Every structure is written in structure tokens, then in C-alpha cells.
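Can't paste images in this forum, so I'm doing it all in text. The chain is below; anyone willing to post the predicted C-alpha cells underneath?
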Amino acid sequence: MTLVSIMHAGLGRCAPSLPCAVRRKAERGRNGPNLRRPSKSTQPEIILPRKANFSRYIRDARIKRGLSVAYVASEVGVTGPCVYFWETGKARSRDANLSELCRVLKLPVRATRAMVEG
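Text version of the structure:
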């Protein structure tokens, strides 16, 4: 006789001494229906150094200086979503906007341009 059949014993409910969670766990198996065991990889994990990322660079510079996206956008002369897209890497800035962005965030223009190009 299985645990489930002992609990129900034809009554259609759990025995009073066992909580319903025990019954549900017994019905679906030990680990549940969709749980996977973690894979045991024999390969060591390789961590590569991060490449310089322009979008992360300007976002970190803005946050470091305590500036909002709206303030940077108004100083550069673009919209807030435009700055947001630059920071997430969904869009690139034009040269004139990049110069203004460097001025507002107090970033070196040559190094920033080199990061954008390569």
C-alpha cells in the first residue's frame, strides 16, 4: 500500500495527522514535476575580462556625478529617451551630441570618441 493510498484510505482527504503538503509531495514525486537537478560540469568556469563598453561608461559617469537622465538630456539638447538609448546601447550618439555629452559628464573627448569607434 502506498503512502497516498494510506493517507486517503478511501476518504478522499488526507489523514488528520499528515498535512496536505505531504500528500501533494507524495503524489507528484520526490522533486516535483518540473524541478531539475543542477548539472555537474567538470569544466572549470572561465571568466573573461570585460571589454570597455561605451554605454556602461556614460551611464556610470552620469550616476557618479549624481545627474539625472532628464538633466543630461536637457544640457545636451536631446530627449530623455535618447540618453536612455545611449546608456542601454540601443542607439549611438552623433558627433555633435557626443561632444556635448562629454562636456556635461566631464569626460575626455578623445578617449570617449576612441571608445565609440572601436
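The chain has two domains: 1-32, 54-117. Confidence is low (pLDDT under 50) at residues 3-8.
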